[in-house]
Task: structure prediction
Amino acid sequence: MYCTNCKVEVVGNRKSCPLCQGMLAGEKQEEVFPKISFVYTEHGGFLKVMLLISVIISSVSVALNVMLPRAGAWSLFVLGGIGSAWISMISAINKRNNLPKNIVYQVIIISVIVVLWDLLTGWRGWSITYVIPFVCFFAMISMVIISKIRDLYVEDYILYIVIDGCFGLAQIIFVFTGWLTALYPSLICIVTSVISLSFIMIFKQKELSAEIKRRLHI
Amino acid sequence: MKNKRISEWSRLDNAAKIFPPNSKNSDTKVFRFACELYEPVDKNVLQNALDMTVESFPLYKSIIKSGLFWYYFEGSHFKAEVTEEKLPPCAALYNKNNKGLLFRVMYYKKRISFEVYHALSDGAGALQFFKTLIFHYVIMKNEYRFKDRVPVLDIDASNTQKMDDSFQKYYSGKQSGVKKKGIKAFKLRGPKVPEYRVSVIEGILPVDCTLAKAREYKASLTVFLASILMMAINEEIPLRLKKRPVVLSIPVNLRNYYNSQTARNFFGVINVGYDFSAGSSELQDVVDSLKNSFKENLRHEHLENRINMLSSLEHNYVLRAVPLFIKDVALRIANSIADKSYTSTLSNVGVVNMPDEVKPFISSFDVFVSTNKLQACVCSYENRLRISFTSAFVSTEVQRRFFKTLTDLGIPVTIESNVVHEE
Result:
């Protein structure tokens, strides 16, 4: 095809010149590039609805709270709860393609959030006594199961098991400082961590040191 | 158990380090080589040729992972699959949260397209891979013709040479001269193509005819085309911004200046500018001015200075121990500052050579790159010179004026494009 305006040959099967948008004359040929239509879809429609619902609930509860101040500042709990759920959800969505990493991120996020909640509601120690040990324990168990079921390569999970193991092992500090109101959750968590860390040290020692070298090279 | 082997890893080379933190949907840092054959592509043969090629380019099996201080390549278990072209040109390859290979091979009718993430390699390095792939494909597809004598490709680099980090090799630590103060270049603006896509407009010109014209102006091909591009951009500048110079950023293949056969990044960038408010708008004057800027910028000391300046940062022990997420922020800032210093880019990949025996099966080669501005890439094969514009803008005025100048000079131009105006 030919554009008399630009004085160029145009390859393809089209009505107008890609340079000047003028009419083309001559014989049609095959297009060089495949035609890929625009999608124009709304991404994350569900999340947007969730976001609006969160805003509605938060603003309405703050307004109600201001109207009925005698019940205390309960709307702060609503805001805190919605905020915590969002932080955890965003991390889960971002890391959805890497389950072990996702799990470790969740362990850390949940731990920080529950300690904050515990602190702000008058420290009663439930966060470090129950929540953190059980989260660590279930994270460890699920990572082991996932790596077996999905037949993951060792470098795709070893680091995350070690991080979770060290995190679980750190519960020892709380056992000795006596901040715990019950001992058994922490003990379960510590024993699981010791077993899984030892397993990796004994059977995957080479892989572990290679992974550490890669991740920490300067 | 499939976990027997411990994956190999390697560092990103100096130039590659800027890419991972700065890759986004609006600028994916992916470039494409394409090859047009005379016959429709056979998917299975292409897959076999690809499998064979990957074996001799070990780095192409890598994915990018992040450590505490640096990104690194790690050997992966992914297998490269040939697919029919269903993605827009230069779609993202690197995604921090979804690891995958850093290149893809696609086909559409008679064209084979090869897209690469820039952190893996630059144009000259990726061309080694692509030439090998096309070479294997042609030989496998036309086996009966090559029964007696199988031709050889001129790439004789060993796998180690191809994996070589030449920035490390040629870092001398010497630095001299003063740093030039950054100038703010004119910036193209306008409505953009939806979905962060790029429009591709390619002009095919006869090499002999174009070179002859360039010689008339006593210029090399790159200088000649750069001058015409600058003049085409100049017409876009509104009067009140005329004081800003038009600056082209020109990637330089350092393999031409240093002894290296690496298939990884080994390029530098020079910025050449022209101030149309101060100088004349005659093509000959622009050419003369650019010739001088090129000569000045391509002096050996100047190039060496650039290598040393960039590499000195990663040889600094304090900076090396800064955690990656802080480096990411710094590199994003550095990138956005550098972005303001040029208007557009012209990259001349040069002549693509293939062994004589496979030439009859290949029609032409072309190359273009993702951009959030306007960018031109040039390469030639036999007597076909291809100038490929990629642009994030809807407007095609710069491209129209560029090719208009060429046709006015008497050079015949054929246009290929992915731009379709919906009727």
